[in-house]
Amino acid sequence: MKPRYAPYFFLAPFFTLFTVFMVYPLFDSIRLSTYSVRGMQNQTFVGLENIERLIADPLFWTALWNTAYFAAGSLLLQLPVALALALLLSNARLKGRNLFRLSFFSPVLISGVFIAVIFYLLYDRRYGLVNRVLGSEIQWLQDPDLVMPALVLAGVWRWAGFNMVYFLAGLQSIRQELYEAAAVDGAGPWQSFVHVTIPALKPVIAFVVITSMIGSFQLFDLPYVLTEGGPGNASMTMVMYLYKHGFEFINLGYAATIGWALAVIIGVISIIQVRLFGVFREN
Amino acid sequence: MVERMNHLGKAPLIFGLLFLLAFPVIVFRGDDRSDTLEFWIFAQTHYDEFSARIPAFEAAHPGVKVELRLISKLHDKLLAAFLSGIGGPDLSEVEISSVGRFFKGTKEEIGFVDLTDRIEREGITDEFVQARLAPWSLGGRIYGLPRDVHPVMLLYRHDVYEKAGIDPASIETWDDFVRETRPLARDDDGDGQPDQYPIMLSAHKPGHFWLMLLQNGGGMFDEDGGVIIDNDIAVSTLEFYCSLLNEEQLAIPEFSQDPASYAAMKEGIILGVLAPDWYISFARRFVPELEGKWRAMPLPAWQEGERRTSTWGGTMIAVTRQAENPDLAWEFAKFAYMDDEALANRYRKTFIIPPIRSAWSNPVYTEPEAYLDGQVLGRSLTELAPDIPGFHLNPYWAEANDLLRQAVYEAANGIRTPADALSHLAEQVRALRNNTAETE
Fold this sequence. Notes:
The complex is a heterodimer. A two-stranded antiparallel ribbon of chain A has the order 1-2. Chain A is mainly α. Chain A has twelve helices and two strands. Chain A has a single domain (49-277), classed as MetI-like (MetI-like fold, Orthogonal Bundle). Chain B has two domains: 36-149 and 313-387, 3-Layer(aba) Sandwich (D-Maltodextrin-Binding Protein, domain 2), CATH 3.40.190; 152-310 and 395-439, 3-Layer(aba) Sandwich (D-Maltodextrin-Binding Protein, domain 2). In chain B, helix 14 runs antiparallel to helix 15. The model of chain B has no long low-confidence stretch (mean pLDDT 90). Chain A binds chain B through residues 1, 3-7, 9-10, 12-13, 16, 36, 38-42, 44, 46, 49, 120-121, 124-128, 139, 142, 228, 230-233, 244, 247-250, 252, and chain B through 1-3, 5-6, 8, 10, 12-13, 15-16, 19, 23, 75-76, 79, 82-83, 101, 104-106, 109-111, 203-205, 254, 258-260, 263-264, 269, 395, 398-399, 402, 405-406, 409-410, 413, 415, 436, 439-440.
């Protein structure tokens, strides 16, 4: 074999599988979103009707609102917690910090279904640890006003430690001289944090914010097991709604439309974030 | 770049050839598998039961191999296999709450083999509890053998009843139940909430309401596919259900089958449960402390002399249209679901009553059950089993069932009146049918 063909041989398996399992389904789902699918084979072309239906579907907007709520919760609560943990655990004077790091990181190693079961027990009205600690009888998962905050908190527990690792890596790459220079200029710890740490961490923050937003918009397993989208539809997320139409109602055309709506929303938010952070800008 | 790869020698060529060889082998499996039966199941208990029995089937059919697969998310994967037309098993179990999604589209598109003629040819149609064939049938054709009947009884704390001077025999109707058990819903600490409840009914999930509706002769669809979920029976059933939760405060609203509900039973907060046969084995397993304190009585009737049971849950075995040898698969289905001794063993472990009448003569069903204070549970269940209500499956079943959850939640939590919630539900289900009809 001529050596110049070697790279193609190496790349062929990936591209073949990628084409069969990613590119083809992706384009076919565009086609599918213009069809009404009933039963295993029956497909009828309906043009843009699925999009019209989506816009007029109140449950879609409920699912979008719930998903956006979770994403906002992740951004405003989970990431500051992750950063605070990273700052704490980057302190060389802290004894046993590797053990703490492992502990905070470990929830991400557990499957989402298992985490949902744990939180089901934690949030129980009568016997749950949360109510026992608070001395309350709050119905976390049965109250439509509390179910999404409860999911956000479960999300913090699951992902904060994972994002902490990114921040830790970022903190370790900040040169010590910058802090020394700031100290020479009379900067206190807060000023060092605001004027040295945060700017130096900007690429890491951008990465974590963008990937967390994408992950949050794809939320599925936690509410699927923990609440089944309830009470009522108070914790229905977009991917759950997609799953319901795709796999429970066999409404594949509409499910494809929901999927593309989700992709467009994630795309737009990601582009805005990329621009805000100036990710691809020179310098 | 190319030069740098020279040192790799023949590795790229070998990998490339391996891939080219493996790809068609995976995609176009041409081997003759007509003597192999792949059987998908979704529960560990079923796996244990069948893996112990398969060697007997293989011994009786030399050369045949049964591959038993415990599949997580079985219904999603089976559906994907039906949609793509490849990768499905020869036989599969299907759970009742998921069966609706397999009956979309025309008869030709259903992924299961129509077993009606085989069942008739074997002369076993009358062997089964007739209402139990209905959930696995569409348009008069049967697509699966039922595994169970799941008659429902009322599990109650007979020690508490005795202390309170309540005679269970005096509870014949739901009105009797309300009158007799009202004194049990006591508020000892004066917080306005009872500290113990005569029954557990979910205010968030539709299971308990659904079985009470079936018992009352209601349902989602009639036999012609008409939507009947807003008729008088359904409205009065939901009104009564909500009154037990709210006005009467006889029902604890927060549990369905949660682990926490077992803790509430242990503490004596829950004094009664709507219990199908399988649930009683759950109680035995998860609340062993209450051995001898529970007994089971027939459900209170809606009117005197009417039906004293309902049904909750269920599983079928079906032969798929991807089966290479449907005759052999059918033989296995009968072996798996219709052997008297195996069914008796299953009862010992799970209290599940088989849907085959002739099997009920096995002595196992007359054994006293220590967990229920020596009550002969098998006899009570087999006496009730022929009277379970049936219901009509429909291609819109999955969507309608999902909307039912919302309606029960809204009614039970005072967001809509029961009549309003059901009328809204019926409207949505009818619209669903009309929309579909337009696009078909």
